[in-house]
């Protein structure tokens, strides 16, 4: 064999060796982090609620993708504060994460002595879903549009009540934001959950309430309540004939109830990357998306960076609203 042939042969085998090394190196990088024990998915709210349902839909699919079971654990108390603290104070090894809701962004301005920092103590993974809020009225209420309602409120300031699922929640914020933007005075009536308020609207005990679209859709479809507007930026797919607040002439009332997943701050970047990648796949599965779409709920599955920026923006925005409207949990 000539010298040049030997060189070419050596080059060929070197290239093969390099290619093999790159393949295995790429595989190693792709699998750089993997859980070594079962994962905990903490839900700060009772079993059966929206956040618990979402968690239990995600857990088995995520566990299969990661090769370790994902155990859903409900830690209730303090309006979600107890469970959220448990998420953020867990070991930052990637094996514990949990679900948060919209109130996560308002708690810092509403809860005295909040035992965690929602920015510094958390590593956001992704926003899971979001859903707009609907303003619904009893069918016999004389106002058939938002403008008619606002005209009534200006004629009789401080006399027209509206309900919500509770102080400091998305419905409450929607009502107060509308009052500020439209310069009207209405009376907030907080309920212990959306269902009791909805029942009172249907029965005519209270003329209207702000409640998330997914919670009132069946009552709207059945003609038990009338929707006037929604607070999302665009019309809801399940309520295509209902205008947005902006379309009805009231700006700055784009409010959602949202759910997301966070881990403790300081987990390995590789764990954040892998958890997000697998979560995004689970959330984009057709069955999950179709189930959410049917309720008027949007699947988001954004990046950790985008979710981090969103949370910061919500904290600032709700902080301003809480101050301007003098909102409290009492």
TrEMBL record:
One Pfam family hit = TctC
Q: Which domain of life is it from?
A: Bacteria
Q: Which family does it belong to?
A: Belongs to the UPF0065 (bug) family.
**In its UniProt entry, what is this protein called?**
Tripartite tricarboxylate transporter substrate binding protein
């Amino acid at each position: 064999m000539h010298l040049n042939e030997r060189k070419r042969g050596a080059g060929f085998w070197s290239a093969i060796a390099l290619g093999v090394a790159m393949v295995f190196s790429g595989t190693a990088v792709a699998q750089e982090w993997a859980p070594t024990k079962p994962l905990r998915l903490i839900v700060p709210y009772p079993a059966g609620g929206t956040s618990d349902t979402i968690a239990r839909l995600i857990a088995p699919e995520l566990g299969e993708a990661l090769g370790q079971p994902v155990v859903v654990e409900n830690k209730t108390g303090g309006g979600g504060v107890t469970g959220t603290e448990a998420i953020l104070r867990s070991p930052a090894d990637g094996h514990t994460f949990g679900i948060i809701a919209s109130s996560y962004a308002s708690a810092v301005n509403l809860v005295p002595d909040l035992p965690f920092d929602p920015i510094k103590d958390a590593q956001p993974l992704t926003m899971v879903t979001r859903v707009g809020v609907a303003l619904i009225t009893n069918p016999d209420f004389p106002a058939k549009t938002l403008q008619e309602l606002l005209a009534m409120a200006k004629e009789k300031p401080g006399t027209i009540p509206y309900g919500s699922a509770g102080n400091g929640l998305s419905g409450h914020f929607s009502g107060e934001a509308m009052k500020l933007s439209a310069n009207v005075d209405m009376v907030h009536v907080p309920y212990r959950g959306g269902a009791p308020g909805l029942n009172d609207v249907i029965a005519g005990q209270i003329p209207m309430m702000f409640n998330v679209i997914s919670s009132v859709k069946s009552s709207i479809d059945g003609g038990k309540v009338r929707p006037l507007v929604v607070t999302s930026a665009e019309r809801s797919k399940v309520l295509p004939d209902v205008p947005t607040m902006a379309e009805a002439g009231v700006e700055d009332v784009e409010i959602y109830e949202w759910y997301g997943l966070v881990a403790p701050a300081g987990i390995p970047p590789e764990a954040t990357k892998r958890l997000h990648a697998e979560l995004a796949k689970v959330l984009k599965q057709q069955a999950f998306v179709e189930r959410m779409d049917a309720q008027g709920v949007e699947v988001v599955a954004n990046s950790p960076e985008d979710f981090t920026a969103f949370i910061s923006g919500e904290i600032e925005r709700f902080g301003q609203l809480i101050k301007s409207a003098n909102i409290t949990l009492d």
